[in-house]
Amino acid sequence: MTLDLPLTMIVVAAGSGQRFGGPRPKQYLDLAGRPVVFHTLHSFHEHPNIKAILPVIAADGHELWHHCLDPHLSELPRVLSPVTGGATRQESVWRGLSALDLPADAWVGIHDAARPFPGKKLLERLLEARNENMALIAALPASDTVKRVDPQRNIILETLNRSHLWLAQTPQLFHHGPILQLHQRARAAGFEATDDASLAEWGGLEVRVVPGDPRNIKITHPRDLELARQWLQEELP
Ligand code: CTP
Ligand code: MG
Q1: 85 CB under 6 A from ligand 1?
Q2: 2-235 in CATH: which number?
Q3: pLDDT digits (tens, 9 = 90+) for 130-175
Q4: Does residue 16 line the site of ligand 1, with CB under 6 A?
Q5: Whole-model pTM?
Q6: Which atom of ligand 1 is least distant from the CA of 57?
Q7: Residue with CA nearest ligand 1 atom 10
Q8: Which of 27, 35, 127, 178 has its CA 20 to 30 A from that of 44?
Protein backbone atom coordinates (compact mmCIF):
# COMPACT_ATOMS: atom_id res chain seq x y z
CA MET A 1 0.00 0.00 0.00
CA THR A 2 1.74 3.15 -1.19
CA LEU A 3 -0.03 5.33 1.36
CA ASP A 4 2.13 3.60 3.95
CA LEU A 5 5.43 4.44 2.26
CA PRO A 6 7.21 7.12 4.25
CA LEU A 7 7.92 10.53 2.78
CA THR A 8 10.33 13.26 3.86
CA MET A 9 9.07 16.76 3.08
CA ILE A 10 11.36 19.70 2.29
CA VAL A 11 9.69 23.06 2.91
CA VAL A 12 11.52 25.92 1.20
CA ALA A 13 11.26 29.12 3.21
CA ALA A 14 14.40 31.01 2.23
CA GLY A 15 12.80 33.62 -0.03
CA SER A 16 12.56 37.32 0.75
CA GLY A 17 9.07 37.97 -0.69
CA GLN A 18 9.96 40.81 -3.06
CA ARG A 19 6.55 40.85 -4.74
CA PHE A 20 4.74 40.85 -1.40
CA GLY A 21 6.88 43.71 -0.08
CA GLY A 22 7.25 44.86 3.50
CA PRO A 23 10.01 44.40 6.04
CA ARG A 24 9.37 40.75 6.99
CA PRO A 25 9.33 37.86 4.50
CA LYS A 26 5.74 36.71 3.91
CA GLN A 27 6.27 33.20 5.34
CA TYR A 28 6.78 34.77 8.78
CA LEU A 29 3.70 37.04 8.71
CA ASP A 30 0.77 36.38 11.00
CA LEU A 31 -2.07 34.18 9.78
CA ALA A 32 -4.72 33.65 12.47
CA GLY A 33 -2.25 33.90 15.34
CA ARG A 34 0.53 31.77 13.84
CA PRO A 35 3.22 32.45 11.24
CA VAL A 36 2.27 31.42 7.69
CA VAL A 37 5.00 28.75 7.68
CA PHE A 38 3.59 27.23 10.87
CA HIS A 39 0.38 26.40 8.99
CA THR A 40 2.41 24.85 6.17
CA LEU A 41 4.46 22.66 8.52
CA HIS A 42 1.40 21.75 10.55
CA SER A 43 -0.51 20.51 7.47
CA PHE A 44 2.24 17.97 6.83
CA HIS A 45 2.63 17.13 10.46
CA GLU A 46 -0.95 15.88 10.53
CA HIS A 47 -0.09 13.07 8.13
CA PRO A 48 1.38 9.96 9.79
CA ASN A 49 3.40 8.93 6.70
CA ILE A 50 5.34 12.15 6.57
CA LYS A 51 8.14 11.09 8.83
CA ALA A 52 10.26 14.22 8.82
CA ILE A 53 9.92 17.79 7.59
CA LEU A 54 13.04 19.79 6.72
CA PRO A 55 12.71 23.58 6.59
CA VAL A 56 15.16 25.50 4.42
CA ILE A 57 15.59 29.09 5.56
CA ALA A 58 17.58 32.16 4.54
CA ALA A 59 21.18 32.59 5.70
CA ASP A 60 20.14 35.77 7.49
CA GLY A 61 16.80 34.31 8.62
CA HIS A 62 17.82 32.07 11.52
CA GLU A 63 17.03 34.64 14.17
CA LEU A 64 13.62 35.36 12.66
CA TRP A 65 12.89 31.64 12.35
CA HIS A 66 13.61 31.07 16.03
CA HIS A 67 11.72 34.17 17.09
CA CYS A 68 8.60 33.14 15.11
CA LEU A 69 8.69 29.35 15.38
CA ASP A 70 10.27 28.45 18.72
CA PRO A 71 7.04 29.13 20.64
CA HIS A 72 5.27 26.54 18.44
CA LEU A 73 7.86 23.86 17.75
CA SER A 74 6.72 21.66 20.64
CA GLU A 75 3.59 21.07 18.52
CA LEU A 76 5.76 19.97 15.61
CA PRO A 77 8.19 17.30 16.83
CA ARG A 78 8.78 15.89 13.32
CA VAL A 79 10.15 19.22 12.07
CA LEU A 80 13.96 18.98 11.79
CA SER A 81 16.39 21.81 12.51
CA PRO A 82 16.38 24.18 9.54
CA VAL A 83 19.18 24.21 6.99
CA THR A 84 20.36 27.31 5.14
CA GLY A 85 19.06 27.92 1.62
CA GLY A 86 20.50 29.95 -1.25
CA ALA A 87 19.89 32.92 -3.51
CA THR A 88 17.33 31.14 -5.73
CA ARG A 89 14.54 28.71 -4.95
CA GLN A 90 16.40 26.06 -6.94
CA GLU A 91 19.52 26.57 -4.84
CA SER A 92 17.43 26.31 -1.66
CA VAL A 93 15.87 23.03 -2.79
CA TRP A 94 19.29 21.68 -3.74
CA ARG A 95 20.64 22.51 -0.29
CA GLY A 96 17.68 20.80 1.33
CA LEU A 97 18.08 17.68 -0.80
CA SER A 98 21.83 17.60 -0.09
CA ALA A 99 21.24 17.76 3.65
CA LEU A 100 19.10 14.61 3.63
CA ASP A 101 20.85 11.30 4.06
CA LEU A 102 18.35 8.99 2.37
CA PRO A 103 18.41 5.90 0.15
CA ALA A 104 18.17 6.74 -3.57
CA ASP A 105 14.65 5.32 -3.80
CA ALA A 106 13.29 7.11 -0.71
CA TRP A 107 10.44 9.49 -1.47
CA VAL A 108 10.93 13.21 -0.91
CA GLY A 109 8.38 15.96 -1.32
CA ILE A 110 9.26 19.56 -2.07
CA HIS A 111 6.85 22.29 -1.02
CA ASP A 112 6.74 26.09 -0.86
CA ALA A 113 6.50 27.48 2.67
CA ALA A 114 4.33 30.19 1.10
CA ARG A 115 1.54 27.63 0.43
CA PRO A 116 -0.01 27.17 3.87
CA PHE A 117 -2.94 24.98 2.78
CA PRO A 118 -1.71 21.94 0.84
CA GLY A 119 -4.82 20.08 2.06
CA LYS A 120 -5.24 16.58 3.45
CA LYS A 121 -7.07 15.18 0.43
CA LEU A 122 -4.45 16.48 -2.00
CA LEU A 123 -1.72 14.93 0.13
CA GLU A 124 -3.52 11.60 0.02
CA ARG A 125 -3.93 11.82 -3.76
CA LEU A 126 -0.20 12.42 -4.08
CA LEU A 127 0.80 9.69 -1.65
CA GLU A 128 -1.51 7.22 -3.38
CA ALA A 129 -0.24 8.10 -6.87
CA ARG A 130 3.31 7.09 -5.91
CA ASN A 131 2.25 3.58 -6.79
CA GLU A 132 2.94 3.85 -10.49
CA ASN A 133 4.96 7.02 -10.90
CA MET A 134 8.53 8.14 -10.42
CA ALA A 135 7.68 11.82 -10.14
CA LEU A 136 4.43 13.63 -9.55
CA ILE A 137 3.19 17.09 -8.84
CA ALA A 138 0.00 18.81 -7.80
CA ALA A 139 -1.44 20.98 -10.56
CA LEU A 140 -4.76 22.62 -11.46
CA PRO A 141 -6.28 22.49 -14.93
CA ALA A 142 -6.36 26.03 -16.36
CA SER A 143 -9.84 27.50 -16.15
CA ASP A 144 -9.19 30.77 -17.95
CA THR A 145 -8.31 31.11 -21.61
CA VAL A 146 -4.55 31.53 -21.80
CA LYS A 147 -2.80 33.83 -24.29
CA ARG A 148 0.85 33.98 -25.23
CA VAL A 149 1.75 37.65 -25.39
CA ASP A 150 4.65 39.61 -26.86
CA PRO A 151 6.32 41.01 -23.72
CA GLN A 152 7.44 44.24 -25.39
CA ARG A 153 4.18 45.27 -27.05
CA ASN A 154 1.53 43.36 -25.04
CA ILE A 155 0.13 42.02 -28.28
CA ILE A 156 -1.36 38.51 -28.33
CA LEU A 157 0.72 36.06 -30.31
CA GLU A 158 -1.42 32.98 -29.82
CA THR A 159 -4.25 31.42 -27.80
CA LEU A 160 -3.12 28.19 -26.20
CA ASN A 161 -5.28 25.09 -26.08
CA ARG A 162 -6.67 25.27 -22.55
CA SER A 163 -7.40 21.58 -22.33
CA HIS A 164 -3.64 20.92 -22.38
CA LEU A 165 -2.72 23.52 -19.76
CA TRP A 166 -2.25 22.93 -16.05
CA LEU A 167 -1.00 25.36 -13.42
CA ALA A 168 1.77 23.79 -11.36
CA GLN A 169 1.56 23.77 -7.58
CA THR A 170 3.60 22.10 -4.89
CA PRO A 171 3.96 19.53 -3.28
CA GLN A 172 6.11 17.86 -5.93
CA LEU A 173 7.26 14.32 -5.16
CA PHE A 174 10.35 12.48 -6.37
CA HIS A 175 12.77 9.75 -5.44
CA HIS A 176 15.63 11.31 -3.55
CA GLY A 177 18.50 9.94 -5.71
CA PRO A 178 17.17 11.00 -9.15
CA ILE A 179 16.04 14.49 -8.11
CA LEU A 180 19.31 15.21 -6.30
CA GLN A 181 21.20 14.07 -9.39
CA LEU A 182 19.04 16.28 -11.64
CA HIS A 183 19.75 19.27 -9.41
CA GLN A 184 23.48 18.55 -9.64
CA ARG A 185 23.29 18.28 -13.43
CA ALA A 186 21.23 21.47 -13.70
CA ARG A 187 23.75 23.35 -11.56
CA ALA A 188 26.60 22.16 -13.76
CA ALA A 189 24.70 23.09 -16.95
CA GLY A 190 23.46 26.45 -15.64
CA PHE A 191 19.81 25.38 -16.14
CA GLU A 192 17.47 27.40 -13.89
CA ALA A 193 13.79 26.77 -13.33
CA THR A 194 11.07 27.94 -10.96
CA ASP A 195 9.96 24.45 -9.92
CA ASP A 196 11.47 21.00 -9.58
CA ALA A 197 9.24 19.32 -12.15
CA SER A 198 10.93 21.54 -14.77
CA LEU A 199 14.24 19.90 -13.89
CA ALA A 200 12.69 16.46 -14.22
CA GLU A 201 11.20 17.39 -17.64
CA TRP A 202 14.57 18.79 -18.71
CA GLY A 203 16.27 15.58 -17.62
CA GLY A 204 13.73 13.34 -19.39
CA LEU A 205 12.01 12.01 -16.27
CA GLU A 206 8.29 11.40 -16.71
CA VAL A 207 6.22 13.56 -14.37
CA ARG A 208 2.54 12.85 -13.66
CA VAL A 209 0.15 15.64 -12.64
CA VAL A 210 -2.27 14.98 -9.82
CA PRO A 211 -5.31 17.28 -9.50
CA GLY A 212 -4.33 20.01 -7.04
CA ASP A 213 -6.46 21.95 -4.60
CA PRO A 214 -7.82 25.46 -5.38
CA ARG A 215 -7.10 26.42 -1.77
CA ASN A 216 -3.46 25.48 -2.15
CA ILE A 217 -2.62 29.06 -3.13
CA LYS A 218 0.85 30.53 -2.99
CA ILE A 219 0.95 33.69 -0.97
CA THR A 220 2.61 36.02 -3.45
CA HIS A 221 0.86 39.40 -3.03
CA PRO A 222 -0.85 40.94 0.03
CA ARG A 223 -4.30 40.07 -1.39
CA ASP A 224 -3.40 36.35 -1.15
CA LEU A 225 -2.76 36.66 2.59
CA GLU A 226 -6.06 38.52 2.98
CA LEU A 227 -7.85 35.64 1.26
CA ALA A 228 -6.09 33.06 3.46
CA ARG A 229 -7.12 35.04 6.56
CA GLN A 230 -10.73 35.15 5.34
CA TRP A 231 -10.80 31.40 4.78
CA LEU A 232 -9.53 30.70 8.29
CA GLN A 233 -12.00 33.16 9.78
CA GLU A 234 -14.88 31.44 7.99
CA GLU A 235 -13.79 28.14 9.49
CA LEU A 236 -13.78 29.45 13.06
CA PRO A 237 -16.79 28.27 15.09
N1 CTP B 1 12.34 30.33 -1.81
C2 CTP B 1 13.49 29.83 -1.21
N3 CTP B 1 14.71 30.35 -1.54
C4 CTP B 1 14.82 31.35 -2.42
C5 CTP B 1 13.66 31.87 -3.05
C6 CTP B 1 12.42 31.31 -2.75
O7 CTP B 1 13.40 28.94 -0.38
N8 CTP B 1 16.02 31.86 -2.68
C9 CTP B 1 11.03 29.83 -1.40
C10 CTP B 1 10.11 30.91 -0.83
O11 CTP B 1 10.42 31.14 0.56
C12 CTP B 1 8.74 30.35 -1.07
C13 CTP B 1 8.92 29.45 -2.30
O14 CTP B 1 10.33 29.32 -2.51
O15 CTP B 1 8.25 29.58 0.01
C16 CTP B 1 8.21 30.00 -3.52
O17 CTP B 1 8.83 31.19 -3.93
P18 CTP B 1 8.16 32.63 -4.10
O19 CTP B 1 6.70 32.56 -3.88
O20 CTP B 1 8.70 33.19 -5.35
O21 CTP B 1 8.73 33.40 -2.81
P22 CTP B 1 9.81 34.56 -2.76
O23 CTP B 1 10.93 34.23 -3.67
O24 CTP B 1 10.10 34.80 -1.33
O25 CTP B 1 8.98 35.78 -3.34
P26 CTP B 1 9.39 36.79 -4.52
O27 CTP B 1 9.67 35.93 -5.73
O28 CTP B 1 8.21 37.67 -4.67
O29 CTP B 1 10.62 37.50 -4.03
MG1 MG C 1 10.61 34.02 -5.82
Answers
A1: yes
A2: 3.90.550.10
A3: 987 889 999 999 999 999 999 999 999 999 999 999 999 999 999 9
A4: yes
A5: 0.96
A6: 7
A7: 15
A8: 178
